[in-house]
Amino acid sequence: MHILEINNLKVEVENKEILNDFNLSINEGEIHAIMGPNGTGKSTLSKVIMGDDNYKVISGEIKFNGKVINDMTVDERARLGIFLAMQSPLEIDGVTNADFLRTAVHTKEGENFKLFEFIKELEANVDKLKMNKEMIHRNINMGFSGGERKKNEVLQMYMLKPRLIILDEIDSGLDVDSLKVVAQNIMDYYKENKPAIIVITHYQRLLDYIKPSYVHILKNGHIVKSGDESLVKEIETSGYDAM
Length: 243
Known about the structure:
Blueprint: E1 4-13, E2 16-26, E3 31-35, H1 42-50, E4 56-64, E5 67-68, H2 74-80, E6 82-85, E7 92-96, H3 97-109, H4 115-128, E8 139-140, H5 146-160, E9 164-168, H6 176-193, E10 196-200, H7 204-207, E11 214-219, E12 222-227, H8 230-238
Parallel strand pairs: 3-10, 3-11, 6-9, 9-10
Antiparallel strand pairs: 1-2, 1-4, 4-5, 7-8, 11-12
Helix pairs in contact: 5-6
């Protein structure tokens, strides 16, 4: 059974059609890269899967682990194990990283939550991401650089242990060193937990580190071509117009 199945999805934003007849199926343990020109609906796809109510599903369905999730709220989808690493993570004043993560993990684990184990795991993950330890006690993303924000997204991923990870242009704004750290930690998590991953990106450089099982080209609101990793080279040579 597919962990994620999207059938004939049509989505509008402010009465403008963004996705049309969009179909995608992903099995657990697969990495799918979504590429395409600007304005074709790549980020829309990530937000629709996550349940952003600014995006209106006109028709079609999204199934997670065999269950239709069209009418579920963002937090309900997150509890199922869906995680979105955002392109532009928000600043949240008045809530520290540690408080946010403790509340989220406690909500997920319920009676199984153990504070001491949570603290040990949080500190270990901060070390793996080469983050300043003081950052976990600062308000979420307040004063963080672009690279620090992306590392913070991966820290949340580590702590919440999702089954489906959506990376919405997580490489944007990263220098080479930060990109390597972020990508390596995503792959470390992948090797240990074998989640499904959707990688939304413009650039090959991220896919040098996060090797996709499949590559899909999104144009005019739907997938026009799919293939293996070699499709990335084809895009570099011929561009999207040839697709």
